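Model it.
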Amino acid sequence: MSGHSKWSTIKHKKGALDAKRGRMFTRLIREITIAARAGGGDASGNPRLRTAISAAKEANMPADNITRAIKKGTGELEGQTLEEVTYEGYGSGGVAIIVETVTDNKNRTLPEIRHIFSKHGGNLGASNSVAWMFEKKGYIVVETPSMPEDQLLEVALEAGADDLKQDGSSFEIYTPTESFEQVKESLKAKGVTITASEIAMTPKNTVRAEGPAARKVLNLIETLEEHDDVQHVWANFDIDESEIEAS
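Modeled.
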């Protein structure tokens, strides 16, 4: 893969984008619950909840599941006491990694995340040790769009996007978080098929990873994402597609 590659794009190319439907639903439900708890159950006034509900609908989650998750967040229904905890660290070759978790017991989660880092040649760092290398943005992937690149760029920019970059046959569109949903809807209205989209911690700069170091990083991130408490993993590596196929 030429240039920088976001993990969500890599997962898509590997065919491993939340392959387990039940696990995907668990993550989405947790995000809806946390979003409702933080900003209220009215999606019209809660952008994070609105984005979470949109993702759940795109995954064909039943409406009843969405409603229950919101009510658990607002306290209308009893549920687990969930807490958001973010961990930061480094993988092989100095690749910076951010791990976002939702847990009912951070005293259990911390040593387990630390063990995963250590097992795969990485190490946990202190709070804010790598977060400064990233910025939160909307991230949208389009494969082989139904319009020329300049037209795709025009549609995206008019809807509020910041930038568009080509990565092989894919186009990566970046947006401010507040215009993320608007850009998605504008693209869909023009018949553009979106293959991946999320609010992402995007790296300001990337670190080249090759050979054994690249495979160690990919294995570390995959193992982190398999952990039940992990919602998202972000990293700042630059990696070739050949390394992905070899991992």
